[in-house]
Amino acid sequence: MLEVKGLTVHYGAVRALGGVDLSVDEGSVTAVLGANGAGKTTLLRTVSGLLKPRAGSVELDGRELTRLPVEDIVRLGVAHVPQSGGVITELTVEENLRLGGLWRRDRAALTRRVAEMYELFPPLAERRARTAATLSGGERQMLALARALTGGPRLLLVDEPSLGLAPRVVAQLMAVLRRLCDEDGRTVLLVEQNARSALSVADRAVVLDLGAVVAAEAAATLAADDRLRHAYLGF
Amino acid sequence: MGTVLNVLRRSTLARHTAAALAAIVALYFLTTAVGPYRDLQIAQAAYLTCAVAGLTVLTGLGGQISLGHGAFMAVGAYTAVLVIGHWGWPLAAVLAAAAGVTAVAGVVVGAVAARLHGPYLAGATLAFAVGLPGLANYKPLTDELGGQNGLTLVPPIPPAGLGETFPLERWQSWIACLGAVITLFLLGNLVRGRFGRTLRASRDDEIAAALSGVRVARLRITATVVSAAAAGLGGGLLAVVATLAAPGAFPLTLSLQLIAAIIIGGLGSLPGAVWGALILVYVPTWASDLSTSSGFSHNIASNLPLAIYGLVLIVVTLAFPRGLQGGLRDIGGAVRRRARKRRDPAPGPRASTSGPTTTHPGGADEATPDQAGARPDDRGDAGGRGERLRR
Ligand SMILES: Nc1ncnc2c1ncn2[C@@H]1O[C@H](COP(=O)(O)OP(=O)(O)OP(=O)(O)O)[C@@H](O)[C@H]1O
Ligand SMILES: [Mg+2]
Q1: Residue of A91, A126, A140 to mutate, testing the B interface (most B Cβ within 10 Å of its Cβ)
Q2: Fewer CB within 10 Å: C terminus or N terminus of chain A?
Q3: Helix or strand or coil: residue B213?
């Protein structure tokens, strides 16, 4: 469903991505792995429209995204959970969740989705009337993910959701991502430092290094490949 | 009585309507009780309230600074005078035109401003504030706009039904107060809904807001237009009250005073806009009264008001970092907590039965509409406080 071709992205004179090709199938989880500074975040930000590439294309079901503004890409069903932040600290948990689905203009469906999110993330239900500023880091991560899901996205871009979460919560989170694909038919592009847990739920994995793809394989194959694992994933 | 309170608590619209009606009644008694001089001051506070409330929406809630709101007031004032002079429309239509024309100016300024941030935005709006009043002195336009002397306006005539001796000032203050109440009512309902929520979101984190599907640029233009319309109405009312539109009435300091007013009143708070406007009107007069009665030599006495004015502003901002409205709310909260503690002092075995999550036994006042209305803002403040520490 997502086709990235020859994507080259610069920050001023710094090249962060150099000719990245990537293909993501509908209803699958694709892990994007790589060391710090490899360009993973840059890739997600370009797909969601926050960055404009110098060259290359990003197509969603054959539709070019690189020239669209962020808000229009959101409306095509692409939700991006950024590496940090992603919540509006001065709005309440409830308001944050509703904000994520506001653009659909279907109030009944929105209320239903928000209720679903409270089921999926019980800690949020207990804190629904509190401002996001008063949440812990992990709770914020949950809220950011839940906020992205209330829009009912077809493609979910998640940037290091495990950051700062307890191991048990990370496992739960990965299970949630898996279920989003298996049960709801959503597609997930998952950036992770925690390669082991990402590979445990992913169908495919892409390894980035210095802004270039160095491996793109089935997750199981990659996990079994000692050379790649040692060289890029550090386990 | 109970059902009335219930309706008020549930419906924001009903609550705002009740507040607007109460304000109109209170202002009626106030304006009839005082003399012409006080009536004129009330009228000034009322038209400034319109402009400050507009700025509260744009800068306080939207986070887009504008140093050009005095210029929007000028657009409204000149529009009002020109419309009356050329076509002699009824007053309500004249004021609607003042708001409408200024809203159009807001589209232009907003389209430019939506692309700018911080110092650039301040600079652009500053240029607007400095440049626009100068238009009146522009040669080809001096005939139409009256140059430095401006244009005068025939004072509005109180309806005959009010009696022969009805003072003009009181009529002017009624017009201005009605304009202010309507402005606050409309803005109050607007910011409580989707518009206000998305606006606060885009101020807090524009990337997160955009990723949530909020059209940030369009939203900011809308906020500028709404804000400009309110300032334009304020300017139109100024023209009606001062019976004049002249460049000298819209100096750069007016724009800066409006900014000071939203900060003193409480950023992002519409009730705070009223406090801010009152400060703008009453502190300078109070300061000059004080200095004339001080017995200092003329040299000192004539410069004293400005110093006192500045001093008051500094003291207020230091004492109430979140503005007068925020300070009042803190004080109100502390008083309520203390009252509740006195009513329900038993921390002993009883506390364990009632538990921390159940509603408070003595908290009959928890249901008052006033408090229910304050709730969303309290949350906003909590967030705001966190914000400041992180930056
Ligand atoms: N705003 C920026 N300005 C300039 N250079 C940047 C900027 N953001 C990232 N870079 C550079 O681009 C490269 C890729 O950064 P990116 O954030 O995509 O890495 P990443 O793979 O997400 O790393 P991490 O795992 O640490 O999050 C890095 O070399 C980084 O220094
Ligand atoms: Mg990153």
Answers
A1: A91
A2: C
A3: coil
